[in-house]
Amino acid sequence: MAGIFDFVPAIVLLPFVSFLVALAVGNRMPKGGAFAGIVATAGSFLLSLATFFTVSQGQTYNQTIYTWAQGLDGAVTLEFGLLIDPLSALMLVIVTLIALLVHIFSLGYMNDEGETGLPRYYAGLGLFTASMLGFVVADNLLMAFMFFELVGLCSYLLIGFWFREPGPPSAAKKAFLVTRFGDYFFLVGVVAVFATFGTAAFAGSESFPHLAEQALAGETSVNTFGFAAETWFTIVGLLVLGGVVGKSAQFPLHTWLPDAMEGPTPVSALIHAATMVAAGVYLVARMYGFYALSPTALAIIALIGGFTALFAATMGVVKREIKQVLAYSTISQYGYMMLGLGGGGYVAATFHLMTHAFFKALLFLGAGSVIIAMHHNENMWDMGGLKEKMPVTYYTFLSGSLALAGIFPFAGFWSKDEVLYETLIHGLGGSPILLVAYAMGLLAVFFTGFYTFRMVFLTFHGKPRSQTARDPHGVRWNVKGPLAVLGVLAATTGVVNMVPVEKLLGIKGIDFLHQWLDMSLDGLTAHHYAELTPYSSAYIGGEATTVAIGAAVSLGLAIAGAGLAYVLYNVPEPTEHTDKLGGIKTLLYNNYYQDEYQVWLANSVVRPISRGADKFDQGVVDGVVNGVSSVSLFSGSRVRRIQTGVVSNYAALLTLGLTVLLLGFGLLGGWFQ
Amino acid sequence: MAGALALQSGPLPDWTAVSPALILALTGLLLFVIDSIDSDSDNTVLLAGLSTVGSLFAFGVAGWFLVEGTGQAATGGAISLYGDALVVDGMSLFFTLIFTIVAAMVCIASLDYVAEQRHQAEFFSLVLFAATGMTLMSMSNSLATAFISLELASLPSYALVAYLKDNRGSVEAALKYFLIGALSSAVFAFGISLVYAATGSLLLSDIASSLGDADGMTGILGMGVLMLLGGFAFKTASVPFHFWAPEAYEGAPAPISAFLSSASKAAGFAIAFRVFVEAFPLGQLPAGVDWVLAFQVLAVVTMTLGNFAAATQENVKRMLAYSSIGHAGYALIGLAALTAGGPNANVLGASMAHLLVYGFMNTGAFLFIALVEYWGVGTTFEDYNGLGARAPMACVAMSVFMFSLAGLPPFGGFFSKYVLFYSAIEAGFWWLAAVGAVNSALSLFYYSRVVKAMWIEDAAPTLELGSKPVGLYTAVIFAAVGTLLLLPAFQPVIETAQTVATALF
């Protein structure tokens, strides 16, 4: 059947071709190869839309397309394949759309600003998009890992785009090393999955989540290396989670992300909204059937998520640069997604992944627009009053901010509310640990509201606080266009899953996203995941009441945070209030000394260990090797000495050797008895 | 198939099965006739061409027989001739391929090497007679023919080593080779007599069937078996009968070193495989005659000593001589990893395949030495400095040989060694494979020294190479191409080897 699924590889390959084109002939093309990237991502976007509609007809696709290592006699087979189900189809549309908009925006941000090295930039964007798309459609964990690593490589290349300045190369290295640290665990996890199940497929009756499910039910047995099955699955899940924590910038591996702001702003938009950071959360969603089997792993995911959400939000409160605020908001928002996944809210987390992709891309591109206007000054204290000068940017940015803060009825409200709601009811249903995570997530709503509107007010309201803010640089259609598209999406995508409306007003059938994710392959549906998770639900005085209370509380906190920001910063001449925080200010400015303690860890713990390992390598391993070779050289020269050149010596030695053999075997074989 | 059936039952009588040996012998005689008519003939092209054609013809016939299934199970099993004194089966044909192709390469290479020498016809006829002897060794089915063919292969070899009559090294090496050879032959003959005393037969199959009656004669039999082993160890240059090898290889003309270290060694293995597997089958041996253990000892000692000694050499040719002893140790795994009821055909077949690959890479390496000798460049590693820039093609070929001998992919030596070690593990002798692997790692050290000298070191300013000899170049490149092609073509080789080995058990 030559259906749309036959063209799915093209979704991945088109940006890859644009990468090759930009790299090879970008110099000779207008706009440094931008159009190749725009055409390619537009093509991918259209194909993704077609795929999306085909999936909406109830079709799915799970196919191996290339076997690159055939395992014989029960050895594992390594394959590339495609898995197109509602989750990956949705993600394809998100990624290609954002990539397309980022390409267009780059015309304004990079080309119009006269940057050099554009072919390299567009080649990087193309490869980045292709890697992420390959990751999205991967049908097994190993393939996912390979593209995951490619995503990491591309982020390194793009964050360090301005490699002649001191900051970007260092930030790129940091991003690469920190995420690589997490990926070590991921790699071990991939090997563990292969060793345990003999397959790393995500879907189907021979997939590892399914085998794990059967193993727990006692229907099949897998090699669990002497652990109880559930313990072992938790270990494997947590190993893979190492990669997720690194890529999705969760505590304690989040430190690379704020530094990554050194990269070009469109790249930040791509990294934060649709590619690298999203990859981690997407991976958990992709293999949710495996995590759902382990209550411990889920609880850890929820706690990490909740803690990261709160922790990052507090750090965002004091930042001066607009992109820094957004960076911490990204960490915080991915914390919400992890909270949702850990709290049993698969649909809620996917929902938030989607809405966040739109409003965060919007905010970054909006920030990019502001940065163009401000001649690349990112300090918010030098801005102010930009509202009148750049209305398109202001209103779209406001739309994104309302979504980020979780204000009704913008997209972020619905998804964040659902994440919190799912965590709450499952926490009430006998998992008190979720309530802890929920409390942290809820508290973070207040901080989110505060830092978001602090950013808006400082940037756009009040009086201009610098000469550039009084006379900002204009932006063109290629900046405004993407902003407009995303501004609309940030305001409206909430309608795809209006669970509170459904519950409160009793309108059935408007939880479209839930239905959508239920159309997947057997064993990958939201319904199935809900059965697998160890949670049960309980309510405060009925379902509708709980929904209402939850929504009201989170909305109230968000408005309170925004209101505080309004009081403090929506004045013509805002002043810094951070001094009122006292000692906490220093703590927050220094990001809770996370970097410092990691550097300390590297210097005082890892370095001595490495030194020890080096000693061991130099002394013991090399010693043995050198010993063997010097023994061999020594005995070799002995052998040379035996070889005297005198033939009678040879005859004697030969006879002697034969005699020894005869005597030895004679005694051994009892010939002389 | 038609040809094979015809050979078994139809127009071609059974004796034609030995035609590879006959072709070699006739070519040798023809050269002899030329020598008698014109003893100072210096028409090297004619002589070398004739002997190469003869070798290749024998190669072609042996290959044709092998493909058509002559002497194999498919066409009615081994062909016995002359009262079972000779037998033609898959294994003998497989080894004949090795001898003839090596002989052909050596003859082409000698075109330039002996061009300035006298008595050239003698040289080529001796090569062909030695090859005849080797072919007969692989066909020997009784200890008497084994001894005679072994001598037929050895005697021309002594003379060939001494071919550079005015060269003291060549003459001295030949004398040592001859003396050690005489001693070994005596040991071998004594072993035959002891085995005869214990079993009352010289035919391998008869020896096997009368093993059960050798009660009370275990000591006699055991000593006989060990002494036979000594005779073969001489031919394969295994410890402690290896002393001649470094001297003879170093002193002999380099093409002859190639011939001895590749073909002659393979012949020793061919006869050792047949004698031990056929005459002393594992299940029927009386307790106390444990030749497998003896081969295990020899294998470990030989590969270790060969590699250790090779590591300290300064002279490239001598290094190759010791490396050839080390490779004898690897090939001995073919007999050392046998067990009653184990995957014996796989082990033996792997060893045979390794010898085939070895025939290409080792011959090529020695022929490269011949090339360097032809140019008059020195013999040590330092003298090879910077050769890569002057003669890139030949040096690429030499690098191929070195890496292939060390067992690195993507060369033929990688698979043959891999399969050999793998089959040893399969047979339960993981420690043999481990010793082999450690030795291989060590061997990389001295093989890479050659490559480093050729490509990385700077040449001495005085380094001048003469002309590019056609024959030597042809042979070296041919061997390199063979070494490379044996990687993709290893599957049919190993399958053939293991199939023909199955027929022995």
Automatic annotation (TrEMBL), chain A:
InterPro entries: NADHpl_OxRdtase_5_subgr, ND/Mrp_TM, NU5C-like, Proton_antipo_N. The chain crosses the membrane at residues 7-26, 32-53, 90-109, 121-138, 144-163, 184-205, 225-246, 267-285, 297-318, 325-347, 353-373, 394-415, 435-460, 481-499, 547-569, 650-672. GO terms for molecular function: NADH dehydrogenase (ubiquinone) activity; NADH dehydrogenase activity. Its main location: membrane. GO terms for biological process: ATP synthesis coupled electron transport; electron transport coupled proton transport. GO terms for cellular component: membrane. It is a multi-pass membrane protein. Keywords: Membrane, Transmembrane, Transmembrane helix. Residues 138-423 form the NADH:quinone oxidoreductase/Mrp antiporter transmembrane domain. The keyword Acyltransferase does not apply. Residues 74-122 form the NADH-Ubiquinone oxidoreductase (complex I) chain 5 N-terminal domain. It is found in: Membrane. This is NADH-quinone oxidoreductase subunit L. It comes from Halogeometricum limi. The lineage of its organism: Archaea, Methanobacteriati, Methanobacteriota, Stenosarchaea group, Halobacteria.
UniProtKB/TrEMBL annotation, chain B:
It is a multi-pass membrane protein. One of its GO terms (biological process) is ATP synthesis coupled electron transport. It holds the Pfam family Proton_antipo_M. Residues 140-443 form the NADH:quinone oxidoreductase/Mrp antiporter transmembrane domain. GO terms for molecular function: NADH dehydrogenase (ubiquinone) activity. Keywords: Membrane, Transmembrane, Transmembrane helix. The keyword Transmembrane applies. It is found in: Membrane. It comes from the Archaea. PANTHER family: NADH DEHYDROGENASE. This is NADH-quinone oxidoreductase subunit N.
